């Protein structure tokens, strides 16, 4: 039974690591360790557990991972990371934003990013906008409906 605990510990470590990056490599190593742990609980010897671990991990990596990555990269389960993950969020215009010839800046997570308005009209500083899309390193934004509130005052950068 001691071998099973080691396999479950290995599985837990690799499955926890998978939550940090979602590359789907550690996932299959963890699943291979679970296969080996089940064999250990069933009383199968270590000389069978280790090859079963390797075979399960390798088969998962080569046969299941490509389908999983493809499924997660399309449709509603699409993985977005980095700055592209901000599409759909709100930001505040820091510098008047216009069309492609007159880009401005929005403040997002404490950083300034280049932005242009969707319709090419000027959006004044302090306006809350919705990020519609990302093209290269420029956000396409649209001002949100005015709810009767005054524009936001942004603190000066130090």
Description:
It is a single chain. The chain has 158 residues and is of the alpha+beta class. The protein folds into two domains: 2-77, no CATH class; 82-143, Nucleic acid-binding proteins (OB fold (Dihydrolipoamide Acetyltransferase, E2P), Beta Barrel). It contains three helices and five strands; from the N terminus they run αααβββββ. It has a five-stranded mixed barrel. The model has no long low-confidence stretch (mean pLDDT 83).
Number of domains: 2
Fraction of residues in β-strands: 15-25%
Count of β-strands:
5
Helix content class: 25-40%
Instruction: Label the overall shape.
Output: elongated
**N- to C-terminal distance:** 61 Å
Characterize the main sheet: 5 strands, mixed, barrel
Structural class: alpha+beta
- Subunit arrangement of the protein: single chain
Give the H and E element order.
Answer: HHHEEEEE
Overall radius of gyration: 25 Å
Low-confidence stretches: none
Task: Name the average pLDDT.
Answer: 83
Count of individual helical segments: 3
Strand adjacency order, main sheet? 1-2-3-5-4
Task: Please give the structural blueprint.
Layout: H1 2-21, H2 26-41, H3 46-72, E1 90-95, E2 104-108, E3 111-117, E4 128-135, E5 138-143
Helix pairs in contact: 1-2, 2-3
């Amino acid at each position: 039974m001691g071998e099973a605990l080691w396999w479950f510990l290995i599985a837990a470590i690799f499955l926890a690591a998978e939550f940090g990056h979602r590359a789907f490599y550690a996932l299959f190593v963890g699943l291979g360790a679970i296969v080996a742990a089940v064999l250990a609980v069933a009383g199968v010897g270590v000389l069978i557990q280790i090859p079963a671990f390797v075979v399960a991990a390798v088969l998962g990596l080569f046969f299941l991972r490509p389908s999983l990555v493809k499924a997660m990269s399309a449709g509603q389960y699409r993985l977005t990371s980095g700055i592209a993950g901000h599409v759909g969020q709100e930001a505040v215009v820091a510098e008047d934003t216009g069309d492609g010839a007159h880009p401005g800046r929005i403040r997002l997570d404490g950083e300034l990013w280049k932005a242009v308005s969707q319709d090419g009209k000027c959006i004044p500083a302090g306006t809350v906008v919705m990020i519609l899309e990302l093209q290269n390193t420029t956000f396409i934004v649209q001002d949100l409906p005015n709810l009767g509130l005054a524009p936001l005052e942004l603190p000066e950068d130090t």
